[in-house]
Amino acid sequence: MSTTKKAYIAGGCFWGMEDLFRTRPGVIDTEVGYQGGQNDNPTYKYHPGHAEGIEIIYDTDKTSFREILDFFFRMHNPTTVDQQGNDMGSSYRSAIFYQNDEEKAIAEEMIRIVNASGKWEGDVVTTLEPFVPFWQAEPEHQDYLVKNPNGYTCHFLRFEESFLKEKA
To answer: Which residue, among 151, 25, 137, 157, has the nearest Cα to 91 in the 3D structure?
Structure first.
Protein backbone atom coordinates (compact mmCIF):
# COMPACT_ATOMS: atom_id res chain seq x y z
CA MET A 1 0.00 0.00 0.00
CA SER A 2 1.61 3.24 -1.14
CA THR A 3 1.69 6.42 0.87
CA THR A 4 1.59 9.91 -0.54
CA LYS A 5 3.30 12.93 0.94
CA LYS A 6 3.79 16.53 -0.06
CA ALA A 7 7.02 18.49 -0.38
CA TYR A 8 7.32 22.27 -0.68
CA ILE A 9 10.30 23.90 -2.35
CA ALA A 10 11.21 27.09 -4.15
CA GLY A 11 14.10 27.68 -6.52
CA GLY A 12 13.33 30.45 -8.97
CA CYS A 13 10.47 30.80 -11.42
CA PHE A 14 7.90 28.17 -10.59
CA TRP A 15 7.11 27.36 -14.24
CA GLY A 16 10.46 25.69 -14.94
CA MET A 17 10.61 23.87 -11.63
CA GLU A 18 7.16 22.40 -12.11
CA ASP A 19 7.96 21.34 -15.67
CA LEU A 20 11.04 19.35 -14.59
CA PHE A 21 9.47 17.79 -11.50
CA ARG A 22 6.22 16.70 -13.16
CA THR A 23 7.94 13.82 -14.96
CA ARG A 24 10.08 12.54 -12.07
CA PRO A 25 9.52 8.94 -11.00
CA GLY A 26 7.18 8.84 -8.03
CA VAL A 27 5.80 12.36 -8.53
CA ILE A 28 2.02 12.14 -8.68
CA ASP A 29 1.14 15.81 -9.09
CA THR A 30 2.57 19.32 -8.89
CA GLU A 31 1.04 22.72 -8.24
CA VAL A 32 2.72 26.11 -8.45
CA GLY A 33 2.10 28.81 -5.90
CA TYR A 34 3.40 31.27 -3.35
CA GLN A 35 4.86 30.59 0.06
CA GLY A 36 6.67 32.33 2.88
CA GLY A 37 5.48 35.89 2.38
CA GLN A 38 3.63 38.69 4.03
CA ASN A 39 0.06 38.47 2.78
CA ASP A 40 -2.79 36.00 2.56
CA ASN A 41 -4.18 35.15 -0.86
CA PRO A 42 -1.14 36.37 -2.80
CA THR A 43 -1.33 36.83 -6.56
CA TYR A 44 1.24 36.88 -9.33
CA LYS A 45 1.06 40.68 -9.33
CA TYR A 46 1.16 41.02 -5.53
CA HIS A 47 3.06 38.48 -3.42
CA PRO A 48 5.43 40.48 -1.17
CA GLY A 49 8.02 38.24 0.44
CA HIS A 50 6.55 35.08 -1.03
CA ALA A 51 8.74 32.69 -2.97
CA GLU A 52 7.46 31.25 -6.22
CA GLY A 53 7.35 27.61 -5.23
CA ILE A 54 5.88 24.25 -5.96
CA GLU A 55 3.91 21.68 -4.06
CA ILE A 56 4.98 18.17 -5.01
CA ILE A 57 2.72 15.24 -4.22
CA TYR A 58 4.75 12.05 -4.32
CA ASP A 59 4.45 8.32 -3.74
CA THR A 60 6.82 7.29 -0.94
CA ASP A 61 7.09 3.78 -2.41
CA LYS A 62 8.67 5.26 -5.56
CA THR A 63 10.67 8.25 -4.33
CA SER A 64 11.72 9.92 -1.10
CA PHE A 65 12.04 13.43 0.24
CA ARG A 66 15.83 12.98 0.04
CA GLU A 67 15.61 12.06 -3.67
CA ILE A 68 13.34 15.04 -4.36
CA LEU A 69 15.92 17.33 -2.73
CA ASP A 70 18.74 15.65 -4.64
CA PHE A 71 17.01 16.53 -7.93
CA PHE A 72 16.16 20.01 -6.62
CA PHE A 73 19.85 20.74 -5.99
CA ARG A 74 20.76 19.56 -9.50
CA MET A 75 18.10 21.49 -11.46
CA HIS A 76 18.57 25.01 -10.11
CA ASN A 77 21.51 27.00 -8.78
CA PRO A 78 21.27 26.87 -4.97
CA THR A 79 24.30 29.17 -4.54
CA THR A 80 22.75 32.45 -5.70
CA VAL A 81 20.90 34.63 -3.22
CA ASP A 82 17.45 35.67 -4.45
CA GLN A 83 18.24 34.87 -8.07
CA GLN A 84 17.84 32.24 -10.75
CA GLY A 85 19.01 33.19 -14.23
CA ASN A 86 17.66 36.63 -15.11
CA ASP A 87 15.04 36.49 -12.34
CA MET A 88 16.01 38.51 -9.28
CA GLY A 89 14.32 39.20 -5.96
CA SER A 90 13.12 37.25 -2.94
CA SER A 91 10.40 35.65 -5.10
CA TYR A 92 13.19 33.66 -6.75
CA ARG A 93 15.03 32.52 -3.63
CA SER A 94 16.04 28.94 -3.08
CA ALA A 95 14.06 27.57 -0.14
CA ILE A 96 12.87 24.35 1.41
CA PHE A 97 9.70 24.66 3.48
CA TYR A 98 10.07 21.75 5.91
CA GLN A 99 7.00 20.31 7.58
CA ASN A 100 8.64 18.49 10.49
CA ASP A 101 11.96 17.81 12.19
CA GLU A 102 12.67 14.82 9.95
CA GLU A 103 12.37 16.90 6.77
CA LYS A 104 14.53 19.63 8.30
CA ALA A 105 17.23 17.09 9.20
CA ILE A 106 17.15 15.60 5.68
CA ALA A 107 17.40 19.09 4.17
CA GLU A 108 20.38 19.94 6.41
CA GLU A 109 22.04 16.65 5.46
CA MET A 110 21.48 17.29 1.73
CA ILE A 111 22.99 20.78 2.01
CA ARG A 112 26.07 19.27 3.67
CA ILE A 113 26.31 16.64 0.91
CA VAL A 114 25.91 19.21 -1.88
CA ASN A 115 28.50 21.54 -0.33
CA ALA A 116 30.95 18.66 0.20
CA SER A 117 30.57 17.53 -3.42
CA GLY A 118 32.35 20.63 -4.73
CA LYS A 119 30.13 20.60 -7.83
CA TRP A 120 28.92 24.15 -7.27
CA GLU A 121 31.45 26.98 -7.15
CA GLY A 122 29.93 28.50 -4.02
CA ASP A 123 28.16 27.25 -0.92
CA VAL A 124 24.44 26.49 -0.88
CA VAL A 125 22.38 29.49 0.29
CA THR A 126 19.05 27.63 0.22
CA THR A 127 17.00 28.73 3.22
CA LEU A 128 15.28 26.23 5.47
CA GLU A 129 11.94 27.73 6.43
CA PRO A 130 9.23 26.19 8.60
CA PHE A 131 6.13 25.28 6.62
CA VAL A 132 3.63 28.09 6.23
CA PRO A 133 0.51 28.08 4.06
CA PHE A 134 1.05 27.35 0.39
CA TRP A 135 -1.14 29.56 -1.76
CA GLN A 136 -1.97 28.04 -5.14
CA ALA A 137 -1.13 30.33 -8.07
CA GLU A 138 -3.70 31.39 -10.62
CA PRO A 139 -4.88 28.77 -13.17
CA GLU A 140 -2.91 30.32 -16.04
CA HIS A 141 0.34 29.57 -14.15
CA GLN A 142 -0.45 25.90 -13.53
CA ASP A 143 1.24 23.63 -16.10
CA TYR A 144 2.42 26.81 -17.83
CA LEU A 145 5.14 25.19 -19.96
CA VAL A 146 2.78 22.44 -21.07
CA LYS A 147 0.36 25.11 -22.29
CA ASN A 148 3.22 27.29 -23.62
CA PRO A 149 5.99 24.92 -24.75
CA ASN A 150 8.23 27.78 -25.89
CA GLY A 151 7.71 29.74 -22.66
CA TYR A 152 10.48 31.10 -20.47
CA THR A 153 12.45 28.90 -18.11
CA CYS A 154 15.89 29.13 -16.51
CA HIS A 155 15.74 25.59 -15.16
CA PHE A 156 17.58 22.59 -16.56
CA LEU A 157 19.39 19.60 -15.16
CA ARG A 158 22.90 20.87 -14.37
CA PHE A 159 24.27 17.56 -13.13
CA GLU A 160 23.12 14.14 -14.36
CA GLU A 161 24.84 12.32 -11.53
CA SER A 162 23.04 12.25 -8.20
CA PHE A 163 24.61 13.83 -5.13
CA LEU A 164 23.59 10.66 -3.31
CA LYS A 165 26.02 7.77 -3.41
CA GLU A 166 23.19 5.28 -3.25
CA LYS A 167 19.43 5.57 -3.20
CA ALA A 168 18.01 6.14 0.25
So the answer is: 137
Residue 13 appears among annotated catalytic residues: yes
Q: Does residue 98 contact residue 65 with C-beta atoms inside 8 Å?
A: no
Q: Flag whether 114 is in a domain.
A: yes
Alpha carbons 134 and 9: distance in angstroms, whole number: 10
Active site residue: 13, 27, 32, 154, which one? 13
Is 65 a member of any domain?
Answer: yes
Structural domain contains residue 154? no
What is the total count of domains within the chain?
Answer: 1
pLDDT digits (tens, 9 = 90+) for 68-119: 999 999 999 999 999 999 999 999 999 999 999 999 999 999 999 999 999 9
